[in-house]
Amino acid sequence: MGRYKAVEPKEPSHKRPSYFNAPPMPTSPQSDSSNDATFRNHRVLPFPPARIFEAFARPEELSQWWGPDGFTNTFETFEFKPGGLWKFVMHGPDGTNYPNECIFRELHAPSRLVIDHVVTPHFTLTITLTPHETGTVITWNQEFESAAFVARVRHIIEPANEQNLNRLHAVLAAASNKSV
Question: What pTM value is reported for the model?
């Protein structure tokens, strides 16, 4: 498998359709009160569920938006199938490399993905894509093993998840503009 090195999405030089000029509905970050080890974010993106699911399934696209602002990715293994391995390195803006390894536990196109992050910190990420009159409600449910760990990193995880969703929206909007 080839390596994919992501760069920040560029603004297109031509004008975007008005559909994309409005920002996505704001995310509602929250901790699940029944489980202090879970973060849940959700927002409406102006794209159909199948298109958002595809942004996870295509490594050349996923590598462009995965992670917080300033991060890039190098994918080593990407087996997009139930039980498949996803091994990659996130490169921080300060040059630090963060090795990651995940297993795609469930893939139900175009409505649900469950990804187990099998290296420290361990977590399960469940993404649901629900049709909405203006696009898709994406729900990002990230459950860690330890509430104590989450309490220590809450100030990092909450904005990082927001940035990840912002980057997903930017990449999808840029790709839509190319096809217009």
Answer: 0.81
Number of H helices, E strands in the chain: 4, 8
**Where do the H-state alpha helices sit in 25-146?**
49-57, 59-65
25-179: CATH number: 3.30.530.20
With a CB cutoff of 8 Å and minimum separation 6, the contacts of 62 are 55, 56, 73, 75, 78
Distances (CA, A) of 31 to 75, 97, 141, 154, 157: 30, 28, 10, 9, 11
**pLDDT for the residue 180:** 61
Tens digits of residue pLDDT in 78-95: 999 999 999 999 999 999
Domain boundaries along the sequence of the chain: 25-179
Report the percentage of the chain scoring pLDDT > 90. 77
